[in-house]
Amino acid sequence: MNIIVIGLGQTLRGDDAAGLEAVRLWQEKYPQTARTVRVELAELPGLTLLDLLEDMDAAILVDAVHASAPAGTLTRLGPDDLAAFTPGSGSAHGWGVAETLHLGRSLYPWLTDVRVTLIGIVGEQFATGAGLSPQVQAALAEAVERIEAEVRSLL
Amino acid sequence: MKNIEVPALARVEGEGGLYIGVKDGKAVEIRLDIYEPPRFFEGFLVGRFLQEVPDITARICGICPVAYQMSSVTALEAALGIEISPEVYALRRLMYCGEFIESHALHIYMLQAPDLLDVPSALDLAAVAPEVVKNALRMKRIGNEILKAIGGRSVHPVNACVGGWYRWPEADSIQALLPELEWALESAKEAVNWSLSLPYPDLEIDYEFVAIHHPEEYGVMRGDVWSSKGSQLPVQEYETRYLEEHVQHSNALHSHTVEGGHYLVGPLARLNLNHEQLMPEAKQALKETQLQLPLKNPYKSLIARAIELAHFYAEAIALVKSYNPTGPAHVQLKLKAGEGCGMSEAPRGLLYHRYKIDDQGRVQFARIVPPTAQNLPRIEADLFAIAPQLVKMKHETATLTAEHLVRAYDPCISCATHFLKLKVENRE
Q1: Confidence (pTM)
Q2: Which residues contact B396 (CB under 8 A, 6 or more apart)?
Q3: Does the beta carbon of B130 lie under 8 angstroms from any beta carbon of chain A?
Q4: ipTM above 0.85, yes or no
């Protein structure tokens, strides 16, 4: 089974780095599991996210999310939840995960066969140059365990 | 007419607002307000070692990092009096091909075509013309692959350095690009035909076109600065004719010629000034369009981009086939105090850099003139040209029309935020 774990976000935008950081920490803590799958740290992949999903059976995306829940809350969106995403932006740089997956599904039938799951970490500060908020920092250990459990459920 | 506020201009990079002041049914003031302050980069560079400059300046833009790398290494090599080898230069051309391919494929299909086809976004274009968008993504992807093969990653590639490259890419990884490039060249020729079929608004402007010109190659990294008004200057004299000034409403400087005129840089300027230097495949594609040059319609820069796509695929094919690096990947630097300037053609136009360095190779002064700063006054002037129609339109139509014109330039206001507010104010 071809599995990819993708950390998404921007290191320079506060909590937006949560997905990248969580995947890095997971690689450090569980190197043996990490070696069995493909791992990518993708800062702003935009449309190239579709290239990363090609030839994969399953993908676990880890990203910071906006939500009404407190910062540091972990969420999980399964394939059905992600399929229900509607694009909210048509901007040049607005190719977020939802828009890209939406575009991909309309163009590539193979994408419906890729089991995409998203582990979301609710963030609260996204200003340029801000670091991770204490709440998000504290949530990373649990995010690491979620990634590990998600990958193991697929192996 | 009451004030109009529009929440967002999509598909433009950077944060800005558009203000239109109307009196007696006429537009009396138009300002493209730019809030984004990317020029602090020139301050960041002071005190840095020169070898850091290519990778720092590359961070100014996620779509044209290669342009920043190439303009900076060219300028710093001039400051040190370094000559690079033909092999180093050829690989720089190949990497630049990758950037043009990525940027142009994105702009043609994802940013401007939806305007011409009257759909809200590329997502909607994918719904009505999935094959067009699928091909577009495949055409764009080969640009990413070139950058990755040479620079390790497709966004903000590394490997370019003052004096050459940190290392030669493996020949296998370069040769592997060939099949997709050959497919893409054929697709680009079809894209040129497709671009002719699009409905362009009528607008002809008597532009002064400015671009790098080289007699033996399509001007990208070396040559002189040519103007359609007849000026031909070596890069060292760029600043004697092309000046920048601060205007109150913009954090990006505005350029003008020494005579005070606006000028246009970018694909239309390059095609009009350099079509003789196109690769044979692109020249043939241009010939078959039966277009009369110079092209003066800003919306038709899409056609120029399509022709350039054919050029850069063809050039990339030739460069990949001849890739056989020998000798050192970079020149050993001998540091000395000096000053140098360099320029290259970013996908959206001429990008000029000038640096002063001390005898330890530390930057003492940096000057960067990006293409969009040169085009901003020109965009405002073009908006003035269509303002009589704008003020008579319904709010929504006026906004879309103004947005489309701005987008046709592919402005790279910055990579920070993504909207432009349109405010039309009646001063009566």
Answers
A1: 0.88
A2: none
A3: yes
A4: no
